Amino acid sequence: MPGGELHDVFDGIEAQVPEGLAEHLRTAALIDHHVHGTFSEDIDRSTFEFSINEGSNDPVPPWMTNFDSPLGLSIRRWCAPLLGLPARADAEDYWKRRCEFGADELATTMVRAAGVTHWIVDTGFKGDQITTHQRLAELAAGHSSEIVRLERVAEDLLDGGTSPEDYPAAMRAALASAAADPTVVGTKTIVAYRTGFDIDWTRPADADVVDRARALAARPGSARIDDPVLISFGVHEAAAHGLPIQVHVGFGDRDLDLHRCDPLLLLPLLRAMPPVPVLLLHCYPFHRQAGYLAQAFDHVNFDVGLSINYLGTRSSGLVAEALEVAPFAKQLYSSDAFGPPELHVLGSVLWRRAMGVVLGDWIRSGDCAEADAIRIVDMIGAANAQRVYGI
Amino acid sequence: MPGGELHDVFDGIEAQVPEGLAEHLRTAALIDHHVHGTFSEDIDRSTFEFSINEGSNDPVPPWMTNFDSPLGLSIRRWCAPLLGLPARADAEDYWKRRCEFGADELATTMVRAAGVTHWIVDTGFKGDQITTHQRLAELAAGHSSEIVRLERVAEDLLDGGTSPEDYPAAMRAALASAAADPTVVGTKTIVAYRTGFDIDWTRPADADVVDRARALAARPGSARIDDPVLISFGVHEAAAHGLPIQVHVGFGDRDLDLHRCDPLLLLPLLRAMPPVPVLLLHCYPFHRQAGYLAQAFDHVNFDVGLSINYLGTRSSGLVAEALEVAPFAKQLYSSDAFGPPELHVLGSVLWRRAMGVVLGDWIRSGDCAEADAIRIVDMIGAANAQRVYGI
Amino acid sequence: MPGGELHDVFDGIEAQVPEGLAEHLRTAALIDHHVHGTFSEDIDRSTFEFSINEGSNDPVPPWMTNFDSPLGLSIRRWCAPLLGLPARADAEDYWKRRCEFGADELATTMVRAAGVTHWIVDTGFKGDQITTHQRLAELAAGHSSEIVRLERVAEDLLDGGTSPEDYPAAMRAALASAAADPTVVGTKTIVAYRTGFDIDWTRPADADVVDRARALAARPGSARIDDPVLISFGVHEAAAHGLPIQVHVGFGDRDLDLHRCDPLLLLPLLRAMPPVPVLLLHCYPFHRQAGYLAQAFDHVNFDVGLSINYLGTRSSGLVAEALEVAPFAKQLYSSDAFGPPELHVLGSVLWRRAMGVVLGDWIRSGDCAEADAIRIVDMIGAANAQRVYGI
């Protein structure tokens, strides 16, 4: 199936982005420091609609389509040409054309256009539906590393027969093994989805952990780590093993209590923990709070991934707000793409475009030199991730 | 008294709004889905000043005037020409000229300039000072529907002699009657002003409702529904009767605890209730949170009415932020005007202008087609309200 | 050491700011209503880096420099020419050149370029490292007044031997004396750093104050007012003496719990206190909430000082958001500069520039007249401070 080409990411706004910066942003090699695989099988329209709405857990109602959203507009604008259609093709035309591509062909076409050379992949969620990190790297002709989910590691141990008494040692052994694995560059916690951030972040004693594991084991069904002590234990142990810790913050599906995922509620943890890198992910609508924390703590970093995709053309405003108080050494690029490979390429296109708009404005108004802007792009696009994850 | 004409809503920013979109926005017929009447009598300066400050409950102090605010500037800019004065006439000239008009003449001049064909009117507040919904429709040469306030319905029942024991059934009968009345298209709760959103949203048992009604009846004076169980009962019963529910969210006068009106605190209700349409009103400064909820729940919709008027020229930024994550099918237009008819026309002028600025930018940068922008205008301006309220 | 000249504050954005407004903003005499002294001695690089990061309490790590931040870019852009360097000089060149100046010479060069005629100085913090308010006025060739910190006054009394029993009367005497001192124009509370705003704001009885003072006196070491009753006592007494009260709100170092410094949490105090002027300082990222309170309460005013410096070129967006709902009579200018005199001049430069951008846009789009914009500048830049502090 013949695909097409990505349009110039500064199409329509050429006058806003000074040429040297534009040229650099068009080709800069990115590290996507938080991403998932692409769908490994063909999907139907209903799955696609579901996959371009972050918040909902329902099928899209008959009286609307998620193409009628900022993300939907961006898919039509940027991904249609990749499938050989005109930019801003109708939703129906887009969907029809998309169905002519197989899952792998689609993934290859899209992810290669992202200009990402290294994908740091969170492998802890719905792994059966999406490609492995190795396969993503293959499709993208790039490199990959792995992020292990702390709650998933814990659940696998308990479901695998580890006794409550053995659990603390087994968790430590698993993290030591992760720390020794050159493929694994960090961990992630989804405490946002399990308890919210307003829990007691004191490092728990092993005896308390065993008690909680015992209570969990007494519940029917497979293990689900939703006990604050067990979550806190995982985070503190990851830190003790020197592993970077990604934290889902803010914007996510409606299972979480968004107001309990304000990153400021992590202050007790951030103050008390060893200074391993903490990566606040997504953060919308608390991205200003995240930037504040990244300024206040040497070990705290953040991104506005996921939100960039969902805000579509409005992501320029978000990227501008993310460049308010944090030092440039403390912000990273990510797409948080999961499933449709449109998300893998859009994250990159929209970020490059937004950085061009925002930094272009800074240059044109004389507030920074073009060389400064290019350096900021390189820090956020790759260098900070290299430092944080040691890659 | 000869009035004047509304200036072109894109005056001064013609180059920012592509002509097809501009032409459409100039004439698109709007549904104002949340509005109140206009003052039925002439008012004095002090009442006018008070009426153009949403937050305060005091007379304006002698050392200032509310004309010196974003809303004041917008009144001088857009309403002065409607009174036959030059745009940006002085505050004193504006006031002097305004006094030459009678209340009806003023209302006719202003509300007809709004380009609103259907007014959905909240009739539950200070009904003696403002026009009825029928009279507003007459002044505007348009149509109207009614929104009944749940707390007002409840208070009227109790003040009218309904016994606590009969109250649950009486409330159900009143809501059944509202649901059957073709004039009534929905309900509204002002829980924001009574308890804040952080209450127990479990659907209460009738016995509990009777107990609380009894406690209320034992208090001297007329009934004031400020008991969380009674409020929750009203909301759940409205939902059970299939009635759309408007919720005052965020920006309002200082009687409310603004931080307890963050719409995220409604999550327990939104998750548990039957999926009748919920309309989050105003929402500033929590409009990003409201947009998130509108994405996450099929039955949740929102607007940024009221705030648009108060932000004046800055409403373009607000409208832009309101177009961040919610699908376009989930946002509605409203003015929330109450009292001075300036607010009825300004809501419309500022919204049209802001949509022109924001969507015009999207078109000029290639991020959407002009036809898409026009469709978005029609969805938010009228079609979504038609779907939600069945009009 | 020959310095240089401040570049035109509208350099690079001349076309955005109508000439009459630009000319006025270039020369308008400001009152900096919340500021501290400049460093009285030469400082090393590490102290400088530390002093241009508000949130952190650590030395800057070796892998980064705070020059790589919005504030750092603004220092290079605006302060380099004041030292005779080209705009946007390299960080290393800037530092090298800066070291050739003595502390006084540096201070004189910088603070005189701010165009501030009156400095209202908070003298309650690290007074040994920075100039007194009189010395700042001398260096700046301007005037100064003093703000006394309530917690500092209280601690000085207790450390000076005042008994718990005598403490209420002694505090009242100290405040009466402050109120009678023509140099002192107001007070400040740092409740943000001691308890957060979510405390009981009921005016405490003297007996309770004595009890708490007794408990405090029983603790070893010098007094630290972190008891909510003692803090509330100080605030209520300041109000009873008719003294304006500045409140640190939002953005500050990581010792505070930022989410507990949301100004909305002050509602119980604002509703109950006598209406002496309250000045909400800094406010980021809660500046919209602060603007709301300034609209809702006649006695509440606010600024976005401190944040303007830290946001650098992005401060235009912040200033725009600060001009959303509050009447123009309720906002003030401040820099909150402390230490490096770069902060004293930058606060002024960035505010003038941001006001030019925002109000220039309002004028160009016809939303206000140039004379209105100039009046808004004068209100926020000086007149409101004159009214509030009686100077």
UniProtKB/TrEMBL annotation, chains A, B, C:
Listed GO MF terms: hydrolase activity
Domain Amidohydrolase-related positions: 154-391
UniProt cross-references to SUPFAM superfamilies, sorted A to Z: Metallo-dependent hydrolases
One Pfam family recorded for the sequence: Amidohydro_2
PANTHER family the UniProt entry points to: AMIDOHYDROLASE 2 FAMILY PROTEIN, NODULIN 6
UniProt-recorded name of the protein: Amidohydrolase
Native organism: Mycolicibacterium obuense
Origin organism lineage: Bacteria, Bacillati, Actinomycetota, Actinomycetes, Mycobacteriales
